[in-house]
Structures are given as C-alpha cells and as structure tokens.
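Practice problem: predict the structure.
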Amino acid sequence: MLSTDALAADRALLSRTSTAERVAGILRTRIIEGYFPPGTRLAEDAIGSALGVSRNTLREAFRLLSHERLLTHELNRGMFVRSLTAEDVVDLYQVRRFVECGVIRTVTGPHPGLEAVAESIAAGESALAAREWRALGTANMDFHQALVALAGSPRADELMSGILAELRLVFHVMADPRRFHEPYLARNREILEQLQRGDGPGAAETLDVYLRDAENQLVQAFADRLADRGE
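Answer:
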C-alpha cells in the first residue's frame, strides 16, 4: 500500500506537470497558428523567459509535445519543430476522414454547434479580405475543429487539436498558401449549408471529397519538393 508520505512527495511533480501541460498547450496553439514552422529550433532560455517558467517545466512541456509528434530532439543541438513527410500526410488525412466525416454524418437537424462553424467561416472571409494568409489557414483549421466539436466529445476535441497541430506543419510545404487555402473557404460554406439543412450524410460525402483533394495537393507538393532537390 502506498503511504501518504509518498504521495506528499509527489505533490511537486504534480504541480510541475500541470504547469508543463499548460505550457505545452500554449506552444501547441502557436504551432497551429503557424508561428513555429518546421525546422525551427526552440531556444529554452528565450521561451522559458518569455513564459516565466523554469527550465524543468519547459523541458516537460517539450517532452509532451514530442509524444504528440510535434517536436523532435536532435543530439547536441536541442529541440526542433518536426518536419513531416508525405507518408504523414496520408496517415493524417485517413484519420481526418474517419473522425470528421464520422461526426458530421450524424447531424440530421438543428445543432447549436453550427454557430461556431459559421463563425470560423466568417473569420476566414475576413482574413481573405485583409489578405492575411496565415489567418486564413488558422480560420480553416478552426472550421474543422468546430466540425468535430459537434460530437460533444472532449476526447474527440483533443484528438483533433493534435491532428491540426501536425497539419499546420504539413501546410508549410505549400509555396502559395493563398492558392491552397482560398478555394476551400467556399467549400466550407457549402458544408455548413448542408449541415444547416440537416443533411449530415450529404455533408460527410462533400467533406470526404474535399479532404481527398487536399491530401492529393499536399502529397504532390512533397513530391515536387523532392524533385526540386533532385532526390
């Protein structure tokens, strides 16, 4: 039987882990928003100072994000934002089709969560008007997070958050973010309108085609990059 003294000794670890999780959440959000592109070295001193956390707490946050496949450690060099591959794209989009299409297929009537879906589209339209391409990409991610939120499942929300963070790292492969993101804004609107009519199955079919198109674009972009490098 574990004594209370042993549990008391774990109190400091619990406190540090809780803080580390919050720090990981901040860094994850910044990755989703595109502030840390693939290959970025995360300087412990600068980040720890900016967030006001200890080196141990920051390293714990880095460890959590490494488990989420967002960061990678290079010996004698430090922690870096991970660079993904075409194989990662295929896997991520397979999971997206399972999760996102599965959720919206169940929508057959009015749903209060559709308001958040509509707000993400409005944010995308504002970003487009302002020619803020990174914000347009973020609004698109918010759209997909809002779709999954229709399930009312914290676990699904958490899963989707991790997927979107990895996807932001993938999207950096696109040389022209406007050309990639802008056409999907109208398709987001189409999906919303189907959901507002209670046509979840139809919206799921539309989204399935949408996701396959995006996957093919990204895989081709990785192939083009390798060809440019002569690999």
